[in-house]
Amino acid sequence: MVASIQPVAPPDVALSVRDLTVKLPQSMERTYAVENISFDLKRGQILCIIGESGSGKSVTANAIMGLLPRVIRVSSGTIHLDRTNIIGMSPDKLRNLRGRVVSMIFQDPLSALNPLMTVGAQIDEVMAAHGVGTPKSRRSRALGLLTEVGLPEPELMYHQYPFRLSGGQRQRVMIAMALALEPSILIADEPTTALDVTTQAQILELIRDIQRRKGMSVMFITHDFGVVAEIADSVVVMEKGHIVEQGSAQQVLKSPSHPYTKRLIAAVPHLTGEDRVPLAPVDNEPILKVDGLVKTYRSGSALFGKQRVVPAVNEVSFDLAPGRTLGVVGESGSGKSSLGRLLIKLLDNDGGGILFEGRDIAKLSEAEFRPLRPRIQMIFQDPFASLNPRSTIGHILTVGPVAHGMPYRQAREEAKALLAHVGLDAGAFGRYPHEFSGGQRQRIGIARALMFKPKLLIADEAVSALDVSIQAQILKLLDQIQRETGVSMIFITHDLRVASQICDEIAVMQKGRIVERGPPSQIFLDPQSAYTRELVAAIPGEQPRSTRPVAANE
Amino acid sequence: MATFLLNRFMQSIVLLVIVSIIGFLVLNLIPGGPMSQYALDPGMTQQDMDRLAEQLGLNRPFWVQYLEWAWRLLQGDWGTSFRDGNPVTTVIGRHIWATFLLMGSSTAIAIAVGTWIGIRGATRRYSAFDYLATVGAMVALSVPTFWFGLIGIYVFSLELGWLPAGNMYTIGDGSVLNYLHHLIMPSIVLALVHIAIWSRFMRSSTLDAMSQEFVKTARAKGVSERRVILKHVVGNALLPMITLAGVQLPSVLTGALVTETVFTWPGMGRLFLDSLGYSDYPVVMGLLMFSAILTIAGNLIADVVVALVDPRIRLA
A174: nearest CA in chain B? Predict the structure, then answer.
């Protein structure tokens, strides 16, 4: 695996990790978070560490920063930063390196900034913590940094509190903070995972640009091979605390040698551009016909003025044939989730109609709609939060149908059959949600929805919280279920690549409106609207890297 | 922000009206009433009684009495004491400062000590200190305040003779030091239970703040551990505590009433008990309104302070 690693780090290596083993506390399922891992980050390069959840990639980053929680300890190995071993270094010396020699940016820019401090004060703090400059010089440096990371009106931005900034802007502030003392190494822990695809493209561009301009070395942690293809010079693939493969980006992406890497790459959803072969239509009458649907959020008080009106869903119309899947794609705030909640009547609409099997359900009262509820079911995003931790799987599956009048004995038999159907053991019936992994829980969520034998399934970001290999399995399961039961599906997602895997037709939403609707081949290969083109262009790893110059020391 | 303040203010007014109606109703419904003490006098005839009731306005329907009382209250006339004929405001004014002094000093002690224990318990979680603080808080919460008062008097006044057993000052000695000397024990005794509550909330609030991402960011910036805790953790941990302080105010007030009784402190607590004993309803009603205003004002101030401190509310 790790073929040719010299014992002493050569001068062109900025960061060198050797035989690093990090021990986990005893109650955990593994003994080691990472075991005997070795890799080098060369000067002026971008190294991507890729792995699924639980692979140990974040633990590695935290070990390098000296930021491991107290209960997790490095038990052996060395980490050389510019030829100094930081393992066993005093906390004070380590602190001195952080922010000055190595900087880090994090996954969620919404929670990574102190809500009570202005942007300027937080950038200032990095320099003040290392005793650099005077208040005046630090201020002008901070303003310079804000300009450098492409934030508009730095003077204004300096005095803003983080809550006023968008996710992308906050991540830019984080980058400005990380760059303040011109560190030689930047560690980025999934810095674009929480961002919209267009914002992600901008932030990736920014990191790559700054890295090239400053000759910085970047260790970039990600779970997304698309991102790897965009920016990596070299790649380390991790699985369950081990490095299974490493090499240049070219080599790992084009000719992976380890089976895990191969599996991982194969699981990455790609834009197919090919349309799905639809089921033979049983009935030409659409099962769902949405006409001019409107939902407007109002906040603030109408009495004292200053009311904020947000049109979440604005004149949305579409129809869905039986046994087909419509993808609803959009960025955060596009109204796609509100649309899903309107269709299942978790939200009341402000206008328009929802014709389900020819009947307008938008006008129905809760009591009138109740008999119809079993026919429209939802699969939720977060498989951890959407199952009651105090109920057994059996209870979760049967409580709904029993409430709608199914005898318990029959419900139990059907639940067991369904569990087997979605790929779980029938023994799952008596167990609790915490005993299952994320992918298994999502299977339970699907089984729960299917218990009602629905005509329409609404999946709201149903695979977004899952690792790619699990994601692929769940998508396959949904496809199989549709082919067997003929259920119609509305698949809401922010990920165009996922949508292209499973949808017959895709509707692209922006600011509450459907801006384009068509089969995947049209959306991806011949997009009609400017916004769709922008979205498609922003997908990481799908464009040839022709514009990218080869790094100097490659 | 202005909208928010106006809303909260209007809510407070409505709340005050409701409290006053309920208070007035309950006071008039309980058996006895201001006339009962005269009924015991054998020299009083029914005619005398009726005349007296007429004079005091007690023979009119309840709602007329309430409206008149409320109307006068709005004009600053809180009525006159049945007992000594002084205006209610004067009677309350004589006792209010003693209670405020006690409440203020014990709140200051509770917040300072409770915050310190909470932060230390959170940053050294599961240490000997943390366990000790947990057990201490349980004890302080389970033992009634008056019992602590009695123990304190026994140990520090009777046995050791360090502190006075009661009263606000020694007669003939009005020096500040003498006041402080008398203040020590009652304010600490009253603070105990609030230290316990405050430190528990502060501990969990600090732990919450410590697990936030931005704390990790601060560490990654190379900020010293001391500054990470003081600036990033404590600043954010104190936000929800402001609301708690507002909610706690009424319990400090009722605690003060008990403590005053134990230490013969000449505050509103003793006034309240005495006035109840004499069925001096104008004073009782005045005290009730006063504590209601204090409570509602406390919550209002807490909300305003949170709004001022938190930029997400201040600038929204």
Answer: B217
More confident residue, A331 or A46: A46
- A90: its two tokens: 């005093």
A→B interface, C-beta within 8 Å: 65, 67, 91, 95-100, 103-104, 106, 108, 111-117, 125-126, 129-130, 161, 163-164, 174, 177, 300-301, 304, 306
Distance CA B295, CA B20 (A): 13
Split at pLDDT 50, 70, 90, the class of A549 is very low
- For residue B221, the chain A residue with the least C-alpha distance is A99
The sign of the dihedral angle between the CA atoms of A108, A111, A112, A113 is positive
- Annotate B75-88 with three-state secondary structure: CCCCCECCCCCCEH
Asked if the ipTM is above 0.95, the reply is: no
Please give the share of chain A, as a percent, with pLDDT higher than 90.
Answer: 31
Q: pTM of the full predicted structure?
A: 0.80
* Residue A295 parent element (H or E): strand A288-299
**Every domain of chain A and the residues it spans:** 110-182, 288-300+308-538
Residue B147 CB-density burial (10 A; 0-12 exposed, 13-18 middle, 19+ buried): exposed
Give the residue among B291, B300, B296 at the shortest CA–CA distance from B257: B291
Interface test with B, best of A68, A72, A90, A114 (most B CBs within 10 A): A114
Q: Does the beta-carbon distance from B227 to A129 stay under 8 Å?
A: yes
The CATH homologous superfamily of the domain defined by A288-300+308-538: P-loop containing nucleotide triphosphate hydrolases (3.40.50.300)
The domain at B88-314 falls in which architecture? Orthogonal Bundle (1.10)
**Conformation bin of residue B20: beta by default, left when phi > 0, alpha when psi is -120 to 50:** alpha
B235/A contact by beta carbon, under 8 A: yes
Residues of A in contact with B305 (CB under 8 A): none
> What whole-number distance in Å separates Cα of residue A379 and Cα of residue A239?
29
Inter-chain residue contact B222 with A100, CB threshold 8 Å: yes
- Chain B residues close to A98, C-beta within 8 Å: 219-222
Of A91, A97, A113, the CB nearest to B217: A113
Query: Mind listing the pLDDT tens digit for each residue in A474-517?
Result: 898 999 989 888 899 999 998 888 888 889 999 999 988 999 99
pLDDT per residue over B249-283, tens digit each?
888 888 888 888 888 888 888 888 888 887 788 88
> What's the pLDDT tens digit per position in A274-286?
777 766 655 678 8
CA distance A160 to chain B (A): 10
Residue A165: closest CA among chain B residues belongs to which residue? B312
Quote the minimal CA–CA distance from B64 to chain A in Å.
34
Q: What is the pLDDT of residue A526?
A: 86
What residue spans define the domains of chain B?
A: 88-314
Contact check, Cβ <8 Å, B223/A304 = no
A382 CB contacts (<8 Å, ≥6 apart)? A465
Nearest CB to A103 within list B220, B224, B225: B220
Rounded CA separation A232/A218 (Å): 9
Can you give the three-state secondary structure of chain B, one letter per residue?
A: CHHHHHHHHHHHHHHHHHHHHHHHHHHHHCCCCCCHHHHCCCCCCHHHHHHHHHHHCCCCCHHHHHHHHHHHHHCCCCCECCCCCCEHHHHHHHHHHHHHHHHHHHHHHHHHHHHHHHHHHHHCCCCHHHHHHHHHHHHHHHCCHHHHHHHHHHHHHHHCCCCCCCCCCCCCCCCHHHHHHHHHHHHHHHHHHHHHHHHHHHHHHHHHHHCCHHHHHHHHCCCCHHHHHHHHHHHHHHHHHHHHHHHHHHHHHHHHHHHHHHCCCCCHHHHHHHHHHCCCHHHHHHHHHHHHHHHHHHHHHHHHHHHHHCHHHHCC
